[in-house]
Amino acid sequence: MERECVQYFKENPGFKRLFQGIREKYRSLGALGGTVQINNLTNEERDALSGLLRNDYYSKKSAAIKVENVVKALEGTKFAGVNFEKVLSGYFGEVLLTKKEERDIHEANREAFFNNLLLEFKGTRAADWLIFVLESKSNGYRVIAAKYEKGREELGELLSFVMQGLNELSFNPMQPMRLALFSSMISKDPHAFDLNRDGGTLLLYGIIYFLGAEYPQNAEDKAEALYRAGIIKDEISNYTTLSGLIGYREGRSHPGWKGFYEGKEPLQVSLWNLANIDYVMSP
User: Fold this and answer.
1) Are residues 149 and 70 both part of a single domain?
2) What range defines the domain where residue 250 resides?
3) Same domain, yes or no, for 148 and 224?
4) Residue 156 CA from chain centroid, whole number
5) pLDDT of the residue at 82
6) CA dihedral defined by 20, 26, 2, 42, rounded to 10 degrees?
7) Of 53, 68, 96, at which residue does a domain stop?
8) Same structural domain for residues 116 and 173?
9) Cβ(46)–Cβ(127) under 8 Å?
């Protein structure tokens, strides 16, 4: 009987807004009750409401319908005795939940999601960072919270890469790695940690947490933070001009540096060139 009742209401589009309103009232009140307001009634709605509630809605532009009157009206039909909550649930094809129940389920799912990540990275520096983020609601929390609402699976993959990255960082500027190479090593995508992407943003948040620094506001400070973590960003266009200096690698003078020194010419070296030099001397 309940399935037949559901079918009856679903086949009549005039009941659509009424049932949507009843569901919202149930979500708010936690029970069947309240009044559903329907404005700008359509002809289909006038027919449906007039027939069910045995009231004239043909001359009305809007209707304020008590939920209890809908339930009572069913008692005068062949659907007398049906459980209206089950009918409402069947109409939408879902379990009826109140807003509080929805919040509780959402919070439980969220807690389980992050607990699984923390369990996966238990005992690592990345886990320390994520615990701090979740407890303080700072240091990248807004980015993570927004991504969670958009899609947990996508966030799970993103955070997994970021946390792997944080655990792999050397925090040794004397052993730098190019950002693109580091990204490829962790995620197989050389742009995964670009600073204009969420992965790069979260990685940088993790870095400044371990450095005990404020989040950098300009490109130069961001590059400096990455460098302190052992990552070189924009290694070609970052350069300096020098003269009268010789760079050494593995105890030997670099032939390029030595040539410019002996030729008494200024030399431009990029950040990547400097990363391959152990020390510099001025003869």
Assistant:
1) no
2) 239-281
3) yes
4) 9
5) 92
6) -20
7) 96
8) yes
9) no
How many helices, marked H, and strands, marked E, lie in the chain? 14, 9
Contact yes or no for 215/201 (Cβ under 8 A):
no
| Structure-token pair, residue 126 | 């990345």
How many domains does the structure of the chain reveal?
A: 3
Pairing of strands 246-249, 279-281: antiparallel
Whether residues 74 and 140 share a domain: the answer is no
- State the average pLDDT over residues 103-131: 96
Both tokens assigned to 216: 């950098």
pLDDT of residue 132: 97
For 61-81, what is the mean pLDDT? 93
DSSP alpha helix (H) spans, 212-281: 219-228, 255-262, 271-275
Last residue of a domain, one of 96, 120, 147: 96
H-helix or E-strand containing 68?
helix 67-74
For residues 211 and 245, membership in a common domain is answered with no
Residue with tokens 């027919």: 47
| 257 has pLDDT over 70 | yes
Could you give the CA distance from residue 159 to residue 219 in angstroms, rounded to a whole number? 23
Question: What is the number of residues in the chain?
Answer: 283
Q: Do residues 204 and 226 touch, judged by C-beta distance below 8 A?
A: yes
Single-letter residue type at 159 = L
- Torsion angles phi and psi, residue 242, rounded to 5: -140, 165
Distant-in-sequence contacts of 176-180, Cβ < 8 A, 24+ apart: 176/227, 176/230, 176/231, 176/232, 176/275, 177/230, 177/231, 177/232, 178/231, 178/232, 178/235, 178/272, 179/226, 179/231, 179/232, 179/233
What radius of gyration do the chain's Cα atoms show?
33
Residues 130 and 61 in one domain: no
Instruction: Give the closest residue to 146 by CA, choosing from 201, 186, 191, 214.
Output: 201
**pLDDT digits over 149-162, tens only?**
999 999 999 999 99
